[in-house]
């Protein structure tokens, strides 16, 4: 009943299972595999054959131990549906290592048969619609006792279209990696050459070994940070990968071990869940990065998504005559993050000449999907509908009307919403509460009916037009454009930054208060200790005026008035050094001078062109309009924050009432509810049936805790996560191979140490000369910008908030650097080039020698 596996073994998967079939594939490819036998799946299907097999094991044991004295054995489950293209069964069935006696062998075989019938296996098979009737085969294999072992992937699941082989390695048996007990060394090789692309040496504190028995032991300190693999080992593993791809196929997952310098192949299976090279659809997270890059909790998505969806993705297309896209789903949430539908973008592309599509969609989709968008035929009538649509929305659409509509809208918010933020929410009746929810909904939809033209149409069009005019006639390197839209007066962002600077100056004038703030005392402690200090009254006034703000559009995120510590973080950054930061008003004056000089330079150059005077008139009009709508873009967010703050307060009031009635375990659980669950709970009378399923809430909570700080993949290829068919994040050409590429959005070169910031309250740690690294940037962070040498973000493009604000402050900036906060932890010495988009890790001495590089480049 037990059969030896060889390169010529007949190994149908329904007879010997996936693991045994994999070993035969490895043997057929000419690889070194420890001696192995298989107990066919048919043996497991009834008790009589199981009993017979266990009895026959004695004869096998005697013969095999004579051939391999002192050997120990591994028993591995080998399911008949295992290691298929869409089901790896990894970790579902059982493996027993270190089997040293006949009785242990029999016990291990019984255990593996029983695991096939476990509930865990039933669930896995059920999810994939795989039956259990075929039974389970078992592989009996001589267990090597390696010095190092690991896993080799002939494709990188994180970057499946990159030319990469990935190797994880740890001391001892590979079980320590598979079980997650140890953080392995990680090597990435170039598939075509075997050259090392990157290496990460982990701290390996333990190893799984077999001496007299199988156990884990501590790794001595001198080996913990030593590389487990040398160049010879890596070359041998690369050779194995080449032979596997040639003899078995692409995208394989191999387990291996090195014993006394010899490399053994232990297992082969397909890497599952890889995207197709030419998917039917691509979903992009990059649009969401520009607008809402943080995790969207269920209730927030339910209550606020319609604010944008109805005005922008139903009404707006209808006014453009785009009945063909009204019923398409433009976006969806995946693990809390917003993704744009590539098919929707392709359909939109029909309204634009192909020359314009790269500007509109090129930063959002991969080259492959851009080819799909560009393949759509241009429909000139759709282009006419797009151009005329703003003027069909009378009173809101044209540039002049839109500016007036926004002014009237902001006045309505000042009159109807701002006073309510100071009301006693607990005194609201359910009827009045619902009326106020409807009121904020109405105003929020109105907000997006206005900005759908001001931001999505006029602002975008004007910036593109200004860049085009300047680049074709006066601005070869983009410096004039940057100067003309930087440091514009009249933004709430600039006003807030000035007020924070003034608060910092007040704090600096009071030595005791300054010491308390530097010692990280809380706002409550400051109020208690310095009640009579002018600073306390000024800070309270600041919160009264601007406390509705937050660095997030998520209604679950606290406002500044909820958590003043965030504002104190901005303030502490201003008082951390001995030298007071520059007055923001002086920076505004300098920006104004640069704008004037840039405009005069552009005018002088354009006047020398044919029809120069006429062209100057056009530039003057476009420049003035672009500046106006740039300020508009920043200020509309200030008023949107009023609506978000009011809705948050209304939701939290009902959350407190629901918690008091026992319908919620905690107030914050309200944000895990779906919209219909929330309103149903609110309407439920005291003592009525509980409309909230705690199991569903727990599932959503786990998803939130998993993904809130983990940026999901940039793209979904037919719903499979990937970074695209291009190898984004590849090391680019540099002297020491330490370059990381992103998008350069604000010119200049800067050197300094990184400071990774996850939220606004942590900005207190910023010191002058730091390179700020963040997932994304909000306007509320800009009071620390004068202290920064440079800025790196994981998300965002040329017209993201971070990019615009960085240009205003003249900070060299690189955006769209995947996993920047992981790759560049706080304290990493870097040089960033805001023109090329290159970030390089440098020596500490180079960082210090580079002081002043930024100013020299931006002068």
Walk me through what this model shows.
The protein is 47% helix and 15% strand. The protein has five domains: 140 residues, ATP-grasp fold, A domain (Dna Ligase, domain 1, 2-Layer Sandwich), CATH 3.30.1490; 123 residues, D-amino Acid Aminotransferase, Chain A, domain 1 (2-Layer Sandwich); 150 residues, no CATH class; 93 residues, no CATH class; 123 residues, Glucose Oxidase, domain 1 (3-Layer(bba) Sandwich), CATH 3.50.30.10. With 859 residues, the protein is α+β, with helices and mostly antiparallel strands. The strands form five sheets. Strands 19-20-27-26-22-23-24-25-21 form a nine-stranded mixed sheet. It has a six-stranded antiparallel sheet with strand order 9-8-7-6-12-13. Strand 10 and strand 11 form a beta hairpin. The C terminus is likely disordered.
Keywords:
Dna Ligase, domain 1; nine-stranded mixed sheet; single chain; 859 residues; D-amino Acid Aminotransferase, Chain A, domain 1; 30 helices; disordered C terminus
Briefly characterize the structure.
The chain is an alpha+beta fold.
Percent strand equals 15-25%
Distance between the termini: 82 Å
Largest sheet: 9 strands, mixed
Domain tally:
5
Q: Helical stretch count?
A: 30
Summarize the topology.
Blueprint: E1 3-4, H1 13-28, E2 36-39, H2 47-67, E3 73-79, E4 95-99, H3 102-116, H4 119-127, E5 136-142, E6 148-153, E7 164-171, H5 175-178, E8 185-190, E9 196-200, E10 206-210, E11 214-218, H6 221-224, H7 231-247, E12 252-259, E13 262-270, E14 282-284, H8 286-291, H9 298-319, H10 323-326, E15 331-334, E16 337-341, H11 342-349, H12 354-361, H13 367-374, H14 380-392, H15 399-416, H16 430-473, H17 479-484, H18 492-508, H19 511-518, H20 523-529, H21 534-546, H22 565-575, H23 584-607, H24 612-660, H25 675-683, H26 694-707, E17 715-717, E18 720-722, E19 731-732, E20 739-741, E21 743-746, E22 749-756, E23 771-774, E24 790-793, H27 801-809, E25 813-815, H28 820-823, E26 829-833, E27 838-841, H29 844-849, H30 853-858
Parallel strand pairs: 22-23, 23-24, 24-25
Antiparallel strand pairs: 1-2, 2-5, 3-4, 3-5, 6-7, 6-12, 7-8, 8-9, 10-11, 12-13, 14-16, 14-17, 15-16, 17-18, 19-20, 20-27, 21-25, 22-26, 26-27
Helix pairs in contact: 2-3, 9-16, 11-13, 15-16, 15-24, 16-24, 18-21, 18-22, 23-24
